[in-house]
Specification:
Elements (H helix, E strand, L loop, with lengths): L3 E2 L6 E2 L7 E5 L10 E7 L8 E7 L4 E14 L2 E8 L2 H25 L6 H12 L11
Antiparallel strand pairs: 1-2, 3-5, 4-7, 5-6, 6-7
Length: about 140
């Protein structure tokens, strides 16, 4: 189960298990106050106040972010994990990864229903239908 922000069009389920994200413990110093907080479903627990280095790599890009665990609670088969981000650009990139995971899931759901569309068509449809209601960085605190 994951934290949901329900909208009239689509409930947004922030599930990091949908993204091939790597995590590593991090001990580098962080600023005192975070810019943004996000809550997700994650497959494993982390300790409160643990610092993480998150990274996502594909053929074209590598995105990394430092975050601090501010909450971790068992929830059904997953853990509800809240991370604090200290860099606004990293938080924005992470939010974009979440949107991409929703686009890919939308694409798969449409194909499962028998629709033949490429990922670019699915992205265009998802953006026109759901992007406006996707929570902003400020709404994800």
């Amino acid at each position: 189960m994951s934290l949901r922000s329900t909208t009239a069009q689509q409930p947004f389920s922030y599930n990091l298990n949908l993204i091939p994200l790597q995590t590593a413990l991090d001990s580098s110093p962080l600023p005192d106050s975070p810019n943004s907080r996000f809550s997700f479903a994650w497959s494993r627990p982390f300790a409160l106040d643990q610092q993480l280095q998150l990274s996502f790599t594909n053929a074209d890009n590598q995105i990394t972010a430092q975050a601090k665990v501010t909450n971790c609670a068992a929830s059904d088969n997953d853990y509800l994990l809240t991370l604090a981000f200290f860099d606004q650009a990293q938080a924005f990139q992470f939010r974009m990864l979440l949107q991409l995971s929703h686009i890919h899931r939308y694409h798969q759901q449409e194909q499962d229903q028998g629709r033949q569309l490429c990922i670019n068509e699915a992205a265009s449809e998802w953006i026109s239908r759901f992007a406006e209601s996707f929570p902003s960085l400020n709404a994800m605190t």
